[in-house]
UniProtKB/TrEMBL annotation:
It comes from the Bacteria. It comes from Tabrizicola oligotrophica. GO terms for cellular component: cell division site; cytoplasmic side of plasma membrane. The gene is ftsA. Transmembrane segments: none annotated. This is Cell division protein FtsA. Gene3D superfamilies: 3.30.420.40. Its main location: membrane. Belongs to the FtsA/MreB family. Self-interacts. Interacts with FtsZ.
Length: 444
């Protein structure tokens, strides 16, 4: 197994140490931007007061004292493609945030998109030795979950217990201290491409920083964008980034499915660049200022000045109608949404009691996108903005910062995961899983 799996417990310990020292950095490594927030904690570990194997608690206990963003370089589809460029961009963002906060940061909690996430639903049962459920019993029932073969080069990123059943009572968030005879557990496991994580770990190490936690962007974006009722009743969060679009489904305040589509806002920009034969920077400006997905009669008459610096005056002074621009943008946006719809259908989203969909991420700000999305996805759609956290600058309150704000909440109040429990040695899963679980024996 790679370093990630072996060091999950060590990362949790580092996070607690950093919180006790009072300062930790948040790093959102995206395709279009790298955002860094510096958090100051009031002292202690707020997670110690949370309700154990349960949902993430409120967001008290920290404030943002530094924030910076820089253009992302060397990242494609949410994955590092040029190490030196990404290292330079991360250093720039972290140094600017440190300067604003006037404090040095050693520990970071990072999130990333892409890496081809796959979701698995696992189940396990355990007969209790004593009638009262103890911490050890929870660890044993988690160990009893049969893990499917993840495939070569795959790594587990998240492993959340999402439901416990004690005898005939189900829907328990935390069974510890309750009385019964047989404990059952349902767990959601998210695996990703190991090489993507190893590249990110190595890049952060090269920046002279220590990693105190790692999370999937689609997971943390949903934490900050979905309101409590949506997390409880069932909702999907579509995090539309620059290079990839993350999908996560929440139910009973737990993530039960996650996936990613390898398309995002940068692909729309690229289409404009090729269709209008302008540089990417000009295409991005036109998309941001004049973009949309619904053409009206007015748009035929609205002419957009192309601008440019090619040196050819005639070419640089060209004009196109807004209708033509929308005609280039709409097919790609529809393709992204159709792909998202296919992933939601595979997950069985249409069987959930509530079918709310929340769009967030920088690329969701195209005018008219929510109306188009509700037609294609066939459900209620709203635009999601991140929760307001103390000290967050006004510039970082838009949908593009959902992942960064969600990562703050994840850092302050991480949900209990598999590696937070001491898995007993005699309960290793049988058959071919012994090899996969050898790391328990080696490292725990």
């Amino acid at each position: 197994m790679t370093d990630l799996y072996q060091s999950q417990r060590a990362m949790r310990a580092l996070r607690r140490t950093a919180m006790q020292r009072g300062v930790v950095a948040i790093l959102d490594v995206g395709t279009s931007k790298i955002a860094c927030l510096v958090l100051r904690f009031d002292g202690g570990d707020p997670a110690a007061d949370s309700d154990g194997v349960g949902p993430i608690a409120g967001h008290a206990g920290f404030r943002v004292i530094g924030a910076a963003t820089t253009r992302s370089r060397g990242v494609r589809f949410g994955e590092i493609s040029v190490m030196n460029e990404t290292e330079r961009a991360i250093r720039t963002a972290v140094q600017a945030a440190q300067k604003m906060a006037n404090v040095r940061v050693d520990h970071v909690v990072a999130c990333f998109s892409g890496a081809e996430p796959r979701s698995y639903g696992l189940a396990g049962e355990w007969d209790l030795q004593d009638s009262v459920v103890s911490e050890q019993d929870v660890a044993r029932v988690l160990a009893a979950c049969d893990v499917p073969p993840l495939g070569e080069g795959r790594e587990v990123l998240h492993a959340h217990p999402v439901n416990f059943a004690l005898d005939h009572r189900t829907g328990l968030g935390d069974p510890r201290g309750q009385i019964g005879n047989r404990l059952a557990c349902d767990m959601h496991l998210l695996s990703v491409d190991a090489s993507v994580i190893q590249n990110l770990l190595y890049c952060i190490k090269r920046c002279d920083l220590e990693l105190a936690g790692i999370a999937s962007s689609s997971y943390v974006a949903a934490i900050s964008s979905l309101v409590e009722d949506e997390q409880e009743l069932g909702a999907a969060c579509i995090d539309m980034g620059g290079g990839s679009t993350g999908i996560s489904i929440f139910m009973k305040k737990h993530m039960i499915f996650a996936d990613a589509v390898r398309m995002g806002g940068d692909h729309v920009t690229s289409d404009i660049s090729k269709g209008l034969q302008v540089p990417m920077a000009v295409a991005e400006r036109i998309k941001t200022k004049h973009g949309g997905v619904h053409a009206t009669g007015m748009d035929d008459r609205e002419m957009i000045e192309m601008g440019g610096d090619s040196g050819d005056w005639e070419k640089d002074r060209r004009q196109v109608s807004r209708t033509e621009l929308i005609g280039i943008m709409r097919p790609r946006v529809e393709e992204i949404l159709e792909e998202v719809r296919a992933r939601l259908d595979v997950a069985g989203f249409d069987t959930l009691p509530s079918q709310q969909i929340v769009l967030t991420g920088g690329a969701c700000q195209i005018p008219g996108l929510d109306g188009l999305a509700s037609r294609i996805l066939g459900a209620r759609v709203r635009m999601g903005r991140p929760l307001r956290v103390q000290g967050l600058p006004q510039a970082a309150t838009g949908p593009a910062f959902s992942s960064a704000v969600g990562l703050c909440l994840f850092a302050a109040h991480p949900q209990d995961e598999w590696w937070d429990f001491d898995i007993p040695a005699e309960r290793y899963p049988a058959r071919s899983l012994k090899r996969a679980f050898r790391w328990f024996k080696d490292n725990w």
